[in-house]
């Protein structure tokens, strides 16, 4: 079992932990040391047991506050998940009326017919200008 020396409130403590848990112990020790520093600055020098008790109580207070926030967040999440899904919003897409579509299709057909007639007339006119040449040599 690894043994570590941690410092809490300016005092060294030798502690043991399971192999691989050293980083977690060191992180926990830093949290406790931060609270012990606050207690020492506010109250001054005090017996080791009292300093550790006060630092532990400060950490416990923070933990309780975080647990309450987590519970409130879980309650809100559950409330939101239990709500029925919102009714889909109706979105209207502008639609061209059928009569307009029919009229546009008719106009397109007329334009195409006029273009075909113009091409045919232009072809006949060119033939007339060139004079019809007999087929073959």
Automatic annotation (TrEMBL):
Q: Which UniProt keywords apply?
A: Cell cycle, Cell division, Coiled coil
Q: Which residues form a coiled coil?
A: 63-124
Q: Which GO terms describe its biological process?
A: cell division
What InterPro entries has UniProt attached to this entry?
Cell_div_ZapA-like, Cell_div_ZapA-like_sf, Cell_div_ZapA_N
**Top-level taxonomic group:** Bacteria
Q: Name one Pfam family in it.
A: ZapA
Report the protein name in the record: Cell division protein ZapA
Q: Which organism is it from?
A: Pontibaca methylaminivorans
